[in-house]
């Protein structure tokens, strides 16, 4: 990736070298056309036998003359942050002497994983291939050659000495004015790449049953499957149980109907599983086992070889997800996860497709509201559902827009979590609504709603990974 503007430092170093050798290098002219290897740059001004010693001396002078005057290009930090935001690695593959390139990185505090120097043109391809680079950003036609030889996407910026026309003629895939445009380009590139991977995955499946909860992820997966395979080759399965809020059922049916998809509504009985009722840290594993042991035979009965869940890439990175492991052990497939699609990308793609679920708040099962160690019962789940509905209604009646709201059952009391900006507006009326649903005591979480906050109370989450 092109990250720094070395022109001033190169001028200073060339001038210092020229003073020692008694040669008047056209330093500003040479610095305006950076890119070729150093020996090629010096060759017109020195006898060939003197070139090796001159290049070595240039590199020795460089730290004292070029490191401090060299700034990062505008947008460099943001470009690196964009790569990191997508959980990528950043390589600095350059023709510069590796130790000097590393000095620049260290001095400017650039977030770079690997510095590989002394490579030029198509010679960069070997490093890019070895490191699995999918995108290479440069400012020279020879950077384009390296990217193309490696099979990487060539992104060129106009902050070097090459014109747009020259870069396009060299075969670059993208030309940006500067690095400031790179984050937005990368966001779109990654999204489209992952959507293409999802499409290929679904097309290969041929027929698919989607475990459809009605949430944003499973709704997007269902829609994607219909787009690729057609509604006659996709079926939605929404498992009915005490842990699925009643308020979720009708919207899920209506969404599937809008896609022309058949919906199966088998009943699952998590409460018949001792491990689920015990509600230890691995509760979700028993839930997913129950779900897949019901959906698996149902899928085969209807001629579907695969049952897919809406697990996304962020879910897998969260670390504490025993349910994901259990689903995998029961043969469920995870097309969103396999394509690398994050929650943010699922929402953005859903928005573009016009899906009503694109900004739907997270809607985990009712059991996720119960503190670990407190037994799960049908009555406890019904109480939580009633308390949430009452608290939401009370807040809305007071004129507040409520997005995320949870009533956490701590066993001896309830804890109410609402959107952060609403914490100060939880009054006696709202608290009374929660108590009337069956809780003797209720407290307000001053930190507001946090997805997965019950995991904070688990003493040893590593035990259940």
From TrEMBL:
GO molecular function: hydrolase activity; sulfurtransferase activity
Keyword check for Hydrolase: yes
The UniProt record lists the keyword Chloroplast: no
Pfam assignment, any one: HAD
Record key words, sorted: Hydrolase
Protein name, per record: Hydrolase
Organism: Nocardioides pocheonensis
